Request: fold
Amino acid sequence: MGAEKRPARGQRPSTRRPRSGGGRSWSLWLWVIVLLAACAAGGWFMLARMGGRGQGPDVTTEGVAPGTGPVAADRAVRVVFPEWDGEGFVIEQRRVPSSGQADQDLLAIMSALCAGPTVSGAISAIPAGTRALAAFIDPGDQSVVLDFSRELVTGHPGGSLAEIATLTSILRTVALNFPGTASCMILIDGAPVGTLAGHLDLSRPFDPRRWR
Reply:
């Protein structure tokens, strides 16, 4: 072991520490932190942009002429189906495509009704193959016209209870989603028919409010 070297008389001992490269390491870590913060900010910005898509009126559309901006992506609706045991009806919550136009929304709802239920314990009262062809709403007198394909009649099993179930599904679905509707006329391939399957008269409009 070498002897410890002492400072000469009158000379103050040095307090300077040898350089170990620490300053360079701290600079490197500072740059890493800055880069990570920038990446995080960019990620949150992209998530916010993605989360704002398809929200209809909530989306900011500066510089876009009225009526040409984005429309609502979908709409929460209620669709009515009979219970499998015939004891009542099931109201299924559904989301359907929406253009922001009442006629088109109603057509989408009727198409969902024709597609049948997705919840257990419910069955469809609409014959297989039936399609919703058109839907019209007159805001003046709150009347609705629904046009279905011929399968609604030709494919119907018949019987008064089955006919009531079919009309209840249609009219109650209209009333729940458009509660102001005062009358609803049902057409088949664009024309009125006398009856659905021999019992209920389809030649006149119905008041959906009585079928809730």
